[in-house]
Amino acid sequence: MEFRYDVIVVGAGHAGCEAAAAAARMGAETVLITMDMNKIAQMSCNPAVGGIAKGQIVREIDALGGWMGRVTDDCAIQFRMLNRSKGPAMWSPRAQCDRGKYIWRWREILENLPHLHIWQDQAMELLVDAAAVRGVRTLMGCDFLAPTVVVCAGTFLNGLMHIGGVKIAGGRVAEPASTGFGESIARHGIRIGRMKTGTPVRIDGRTVHFDDLTRQDGENTQDAAVRSTFSFLSSDRPTLPQLPCWTLFSTPECHEVLRAGLPYSPLYNGQIQSIGPRYCPSIETKLVTFPEREQHQLFLEPEGTNTQEYYLNGFSSSLPLDVQIRALRKIPALRDVEVYRPGYAIEYDYFDPTQLRHTLESKVVDGLFLAGQVNGTTGYEEAAGQGLVAGVNAALKCSHSSPFVMRRDESYIGVLIDDLVTKGVDEPYRMFTSRAEYRILLRQDNADERLTERSYEMGLATRERYDTWCRKRDDIAALLDFASKYSIKADKINDALTSLGTAPLERGCRLVDLLGRPELTFANLAPHLPALREKLGDCDPSVAEEAEITIKYSGYIKREREYADKILRLENIRIKGKLDYNSIESLSTEARQKLTRIDPETLAQASRIPGVSPSDVNVLLLLMRR
Known about the structure:
With about 625 residues, this protein is an alpha+beta fold.
């Protein structure tokens, strides 16, 4: 049979779900092809969303009209704001989730979206004609035809799992690998490579001695006074019972067992040749890299409200099963531990992301979009962000509309995609705040300010979301106006300032001037200023938070905005297709090679390519002026 659609999405992981939902929301008739409808948005590794820089990405997905933030809020069993001790540019939300409920909440959403259809099957071949996508052929012999295809295959392309000497073909434990589909893409000139990741053991909570662990509660309870959600549309209270996580440490005795097993580790005996994530190392890698350490911190994280299954964060391993269990039992709290399944490593195919445009469309095959781990990234959030951008652009391409490109000064998603298509990857790419040069502009609290209006104009964000942002925008402006006009007499506030650990005033000032002091906040000044207390009573906590950050960091924000605008001028100088780099002898040899291979869209992108020096950029700028 033949089925015709506008957009085909292959794979229903975090990238595929966001891609399919976004394309359908844009009005494109979309089909989502998945091998198992009961594993939609499966959390293959840890049952958590967010974290450092990742939480900002989830807020951006939400501000654009994506679903990850809302699903997380519906399924969260613990919420924390990381890096509170640092500046607001570093604050990052993170939530533990109920893994099972997360799957079913996503499925409920997708099954009820207009324009979206789901088909349970396995993609076997990408159909291409004259360097343009025609569709996908499946294992059941169906031909799905469409002008655009979004591939979000995760770790399933020729996936191979390793547990000691045991090798099992699969994209995830107990799920088959996809064979042949990656090759059907690569044969059209798309470069393919191999990467590795891993996951820890899953533990039966009934066999854990919790008295020997340190309890780690989240920031929220049912009656907490803090906002504990990802989505700008969610209520500020969790809907599920909140559960603790637990911390523990490996021991020297545990390390002895692990070291004795290293000859049987696929990572060190040559069985695995591909590159794994630098910033999420296995426990055996930690022992080899830091031989002097006598302990490593571990986190025991619940998988849900109605299960005894726990995830042992920090103990990713591909060692033999017996080695993993014997090592775990050398940790006091795990001395009687039983496991549901061991940790394992997995190798999989990925495609060179420098062959993509910033829309995530292939430069080689027209209409082919790639998103998620197939682009060499790691993490649910990085995948979901790419999926949303790919899904939107696939839908826009079908309607012959202008593409949607996110800038580096606009979002972490923009930083992620620009890094991928400009620099490529030589190891699984993970987002960090340090990768963004405009961190103070890209905070987790202002994602709606940066993105919602643009998304609404494009047709992705709903009217409800846009109106929510407009109300917040107006409330922030009103609070900033109040702070700039509210005068405070020195004799009325000095006793309070002394009690708050800051110097008294010599003369009166405005509230905005007081808030410039690091010790002072809206919250600790409100008890002493009745007018402020009344004003805050009408505000959502997120309004006060963003207004306060705007006041305290106004100088930094202005300086970073000015620098971003300066760089943006280079973004407007388009060079693609205008220069023959190999013929420009004044460029360095490395610059000629890199520019030819990546073929950057703009002068700003060219300046970010490793090996292209400032003098090379000046040469290009001079040629473009001519």
